[in-house]
Write the structure tokens for this entry.
Amino acid sequence: MDSPSKLPYGPAIVIHALANPTRFLKLARPLTPICFWLGVALIAFGGWGALTQIPADYLQRDSVRILYIHVPSAWLGMGGWSGLALSSLFYLVWRHPLAAIAARAIAPVGMVFIALCLLTGSIYGRPTWGTWWEWDGRMTSTLLLFFVYIAYIALARADDERGGDGRIPALFGIAGTALLPIIRYSVDWWNTLHQGQTFGVTGSSMDSSMIWPLAFTVLGFTFFFAGVVLMRMRALLAQAKVEARLRRMAA
Amino acid sequence: MNVWPFVVAAYAVTFAASAGLSLWAWQGMRKAEAAADALRKDK
């Protein structure tokens, strides 16, 4: 077992080891289909459970079934930005190009999930609250995160085209995390149409007979997200390899 | 009010977006890796 004095170096060593593109690809190639198909299977099972096996909610009736895809979308929209910000931080601290590639790969996937969160939330809101949209704290801050994703994608693309060193998109990625606690606590800070937190550190306000499909859809969408991000990272790495080789051939 | 059309719409939107996203990512990966392999073989 490592001595306590060595422990802080552990994560850094793992990050440095994985930051080698060859080593990363060796791991990513088999992991991509595993993550993707495991995610699809878990989503299919959780979706079947949500649509056919749980009872209708006493208050929300059958519209509660929408939450089994809305909650994972929200989790991955916000979790995606956390991953993007962490990758940006690693890039700024250690200057590993793979960290910048990870941030760029996460951005469009996270953007799709936050868009799905907004869309499924809006569809849920119409029969439950009687409105498609309300400019309250939770919905407005989530919409802002969607625009922040778009801004990051545009900024990263502009930085690549102008031969930038990637520091500006990385700083933007870190600055964007300011939105995450606003989204998380908006239902506590402001009087809002959106319901309060269903899940906390100490437990859930959801009945145990209704919770199990959510565990499958959350886990399934997380694996699916990882699989798609790995595909994007492999594509970006291959593109970078082609560009580098073409530059060498032209020189 | 029958809420099932809303439930079906939410699942359909999620399915379509997830399928489109994975197809886009998979095609992009295949195309980029094929280009990198072709260039390596030409060397």
